[in-house]
Amino acid sequence: MSHTAHIRSHRKPRRSASTLAMRAGVAGGVLSTLAVAGASGSANAAEPVTQTLELPTLTADLAAQAAQSADATQQAASNYQLQAERDAAAAKAAKQAKADLAEAKQKAAEAKKKAQEAARKDAAARASRSAERTTLSTTASTGTATGSDTTSTSTSTATGSDTTSTSTSTATGSAAAVISFVKAQVGKAYVSGATGPSAYDCSGLVQTAFKQIGISLPRVSQDQSTAGTQVGLSNLQPGDILYWGSAGSAYHVGVYVGDGMFVGAQNPSTGVVERPLSYDPPTGAVRVL
Predict the structure, then answer these.
(1) Rounded to an integer, what distance in angstroms lies between the CA atom of residue 146 and that of residue 139?
(2) What is the number of structural domains in the chain?
């Protein structure tokens, strides 16, 4: 045995080619794997970065657009509702205006009709007054009264050329009852269509007065103006019915109470009054007693 046999050699032992090849293959595989993994990792790492940068931007834009679209839709809906409300209000106002106009036209027509009627009556009254302008108080005292219900006396004293005459007229019987009744109503109110006891219109007063003595007269002045015998205004007797206007179309009546006076329900302002014939000269008269 050599004396150097137990001494280790400083040279590295030889490795076989197969071992080296295997190690090289392993190392290559590992490197390849790492390279692939690295590449894959780099790709994977790069992709999330790209998505992280882009997705928030896309999401924000879409959200803004959606918000704008929602605002626009809401605004449009509000505009439609406002317009609908305005249209409804305009339609309602137009309908009310139409109704108001119709009512105003109707009231105007009624007022015009009343004014025309008042003008007609006033014209008739003026015409009758101008046609019959007489002083009936004088003619009544100088006229001759006849009839069973009226007593007329006249006395005359002559001394030389001087003559004094007096004339009096006193109603009796049914005429006195009519006159007493109408005079008792003086001061009461005038109400169109009323026949007493607290208010009258002109024909209502005349009708009620004659009803007290059992005489039934028509209700309206037109008919009352033809209810008896026509008499001249110069030949009146107490109890005669006076009328204004034409016989058969008279618009007012009263009762002659003697001494040139009459009683009538004149109008809402005066009510039932006693007045001289000169206050409002009548057109004619009828006698029913």
Answers:
(1) 14
(2) 1
